Amino acid sequence: MKVIKILLSILSVVIIAGCSSKKDSYVEIESINKELSKSDILSGNFETLSGTWYSEVGKNENQMILTIDKEGNVKVFNDNKEIQNKGSLVVASDNTFDKGYLVMNVKGIKEGEEGRERKERKERNIYADGRMGEEHTYSTFDRNLYFFQGKSEFNRDEVGFDFSRENEDVIKYDIPKKITKDTLVFQKNEKPKEKGYGRPNAINYTVFHRKNEMNEQPTPIKSNLNIDEIKNSNLSSIASNWRNPDGHSFKVYSDGRGESFFHGTTRRGVIEFSSIQDNIISGNFGKKTEQWVIPIYANGDIGREVDGVDGYNIQIIKSGNTVGATKNTFLYDIFELPDGVPRLSVIDRDVLTLRDHFDEYFESPSKVFFREKEMKQFADVKNENIMNIDGLVKGDFSTVVGTWGDPENQGIGNRIRIDEKGVLTWIGSRSAERIIHDVKKNADNSGIGIFGKEFNWETVTPSNYINFIPAGIAIKGEENSDNSKDRIIFGSIEKQSDRKIFYRLDE
Question: Between vectors from CA 32 to CA 28 and to CA 33, what angle results, nearest 5°?
Answer without folding.
Answer: 120
